[in-house]
Amino acid sequence: MNKKYGFFLIVIFLLIISGCVTKKIYYNVYYVKPFDWYPKEKQDSTINFYSPYFKRIKIFLDPGHGGTDRKNKGPAGLAVEADLNLKVALYLRDYLQRAGAIVNMSRDRDTFISLDDRSRLSNEWGADIFISIHHNAPARPDDIYTNYTSTYYHATQKDYEYDHSSHDIARYVQRDLAYAMGNSGGLGSFDGTYSDYWIYPKAGFSVLRKTIGPRILIECAFHTSAYEEQRLIIDEFNQIQAWGIFKGLGRYLRQGIVILQLEKDSLNLRNEKFLSVIINDKNIGIDTTFYIAQIDSQNVEAKFLLNKNSKKILIPLRQDLSTGQHELKVVVRNINGNHSFPFRPKFYVVNPQNKTPIKK
User: Fold this and answer.
1) Which of 99, 248, 280, 293 could form a disulfide with 172 if both were Cys (CB 3.0 to 4.6 A apart)?
2) Residue 208 forms beta bridges with which residues?
3) How does pLDDT run across 71-84, given as a tens digit for each residue?
């Protein structure tokens, strides 16, 4: 065998071998430590600053996937979405608890939790805010380039199911998380927040559809991005992700939350002309130029009654309302732009003119 022919065989052999080997691409990754997160003294100072706004707030964290649901991985097989979701959630839990929030989780280890149970656990616990944490993947399995940060809320503004306060929270969290990670919000949205109807029209994500109260779902980044995968497996970067979510929540809560309460849920049309809803805005102030009031999904007029001793919004009762159960929906907002938490109570109309006399 001549040398030229032998060299040719060696080259062919090496090409065959290299084609059978799974390649792992490593990048020189880059990220910035937030100025208010590092060093530890600045982190403590930031948490102390936001602490008054987190006191007694119940936050439910939902790390997506886990247990038998571990198929979502990065192109090099290094980043497993279920593990990333859990790591970010656990770091976020630490920041929130240090700030005085009350935190519960759908899972705190690698275990499977059904979609229905994730919502049920949050609802039964009485969470003030629900946050589901995920890492994204594109529609095409061979796409290893797409990467951005996005935050989802349920339904669209024209839908009855839409909740303004969830969209408020999504905006704050999206801004600070994307900033901390150095990512854009994608081209499908002006500010990186998306309706879940964009993914599943008229249905949305199960955990957002079935959960009561303000709720968001975060897609921190694309674990399928060859470059982003290299950052996501860095523990310090996971801490920075959690920090971005924490900061967004802190900024939101600092602008004040608004809680509504129905003064009476049973009304006699002969004696009462208004539904009275008590407004608790922590003395931030109410924007009287905006409100939404609906009875059985139909818009109705309303008026504010604001004084030093109480804050209310009054909804006139139509005298032709049928006897029985009805649903009220009210949305107001404070002067900082934060809308009231979801408020759709049932109320009962008793009209003595329509009641059958009781025989003695």
Assistant:
1) 248
2) none
3) 999 999 999 999 99
